[in-house]
Write a structure and sequence with these properties.
Order of helices and strands: EEEEEEEEEEE
Number of helices: 0
Shape: globular
Radius of gyration: 14 Å
Largest sheet: 7 strands, mixed
Helix content: under 10%
Structural class: mainly beta
Strand content: over 45%
Length: 124
Amino acid sequence: QVRLVGSGGGSVQAGGSLSVSCAVSGYTVSPYCMAWFRQAPGKEREGIAARDRDGSTSYAESVKGRFTISQDNAKNTLSLQMNSLKPEDTAMYYCAADFRSMPCGIATIRPQLWGQGTQVTVSS
């Protein structure tokens, strides 16, 4: 059974950095596209960063230049490094996996599997 287990996150002041990670296990065929989504209280879940198997990435405008999505294939771990954090980055962060061989991007990913969510809180 494929599982995504998120970790990391926490609390930081504005301008600081945090990272979140997602351990992927139990698959026989690796996901074609993986991504990070976030959901702030009272708002819809939004895709913010995506990465395909070949390493191509895409980002939401709100995080471009500040966040970096990466994958360690040896450790089967997806990570999101978040720098220059702002209070509006406060949200629950979820990793997601799409096993379809389709164009991979934050607008096109259709996850079949989600991690459990990790809280990120940025204070002003």
